[in-house]
Amino acid sequence: MTEITKGNSYTDYQLAQIYDPINEADHDIQYYVKLATEISAQSDRKLHVLDVGCGTGWLAVELAKLGHKVEGIEPAFGMLKVANNRPDSDLVNWHQETGSSFNLPNQFDLIVMTGHVFQVFLTDDEIFSVFDNLYAHLKSGGMLAFENRNIEYRSWDRWTPDETRETVSVPDVGDVTYWHDIIEEKGELITFATYFKFPDGREYRDDNNLRFLPQQKMKQMLEDTGFRGLEWYGDWDQRPFDPSQREIIVHATK
Q1: Which of 49, 97, 107, 200 is a Cys-bridge partner for 102, taking CB atoms 3.0 to 4.6 Å apart?
Q2: Partners of 110 in the beta sheet?
Q3: Architecture of 1-254 per CATH?
Q4: How far is Cα 68 from Cα 82, in angstroms, rounded to an integer?
């Protein structure tokens, strides 16, 4: 019987390398690049952008290559190591910090959180702490933009081994098979495991918790923080949000 090792796909570099091949669809990257481009065109200047939970740095580097000044915040060492090995990574200023703890001397035109990173904040206190910090780091009139999976869509119902098992080719590693499995559903909190099987037979299990915050709760918490001009979308084509949509994408202005 193969021994399954506990790992963390964010802090462990060997697992962090698999993140981009697994998430090769770049709808969110294109969305936030387009958003930055539109805001830049309106102001007729390049933006100062903060990418919170920047992960492997894909979006941050793409924005920097367009001439924007970009800072990336990421607490996980493995993800930051992948980001620093990315071509053109020197265009971005990287910081190993959390969304609530970072303290930069700048204010930003645009702050983004991608890859559903908002869902790793599990308590109201943690969410308010992050929102307060992001609000403080925004310029007056600046925008916060991020997404959250819609709880009413129940996307985790499809996170079964049969429906999620895939094999991806990872540079310098080979073919890695991965799949998800739900451990527990408790209100807004979902606990799930991701399994990884490497070409040499090694297997890893990574357990994670996500919070699926309903749109109305998110709205109230953003407004309580001081954000205004909230805009809500249901998918990457910017269709208006309704409860049947998979995503909750929000633009909030300071």
Answers
A1: 97
A2: 49, 143
A3: 3-Layer(aba) Sandwich (3.40)
A4: 21
Q: How many CB atoms lie within 10 A of CB 77?
A: 15
38-48 pLDDT per residue, tens: 999 999 999 99
Q: Are strands 203-211 and 4-6 parallel, antiparallel or unpaired?
A: parallel
Burial class (CB in 10 A: 0-12, 13-18, 19+), 200: exposed
Give whole-number Cα distances, 126 to 8, 39, 230, 238, 254, in Å.
Answer: 21, 29, 21, 28, 20
Listed by start position, the domains of the chain span 1-254
Helix, strand, coil percentages, rounded to 5, for the chain: 35, 35, 35
pLDDT tens per residue, range 93-123: 999 999 999 999 999 999 999 999 999 999 9
- The side-by-side arrangement of strands in the sheet containing 247-253 is 92-95, 69-73, 48-52, 108-113, 138-149, 247-253, 228-233
Contacts of 106 (CB under 8 A, 6+ apart): 48, 71, 137
- Here the tokens at position 244 are 């049947």
Place of tokens 């000044």: 69
pLDDT at residue 2 tops 70: no
Q: What is the DSSP letter of 188?
A: T
- Say what the pTM is: 0.96
Residue type, 132: D
CA 189 – CA 209 distance, rounded (Å): 7
CA–CA dist 162, 181 (Å, integer): 9
Distance separating alpha carbons of residues 172 and 85, to the nearest angstrom = 13
Residues 199, 177: Cα–Cα separation, whole Å: 8
CA dihedral sign, ordered 192, 196, 197, 202: negative
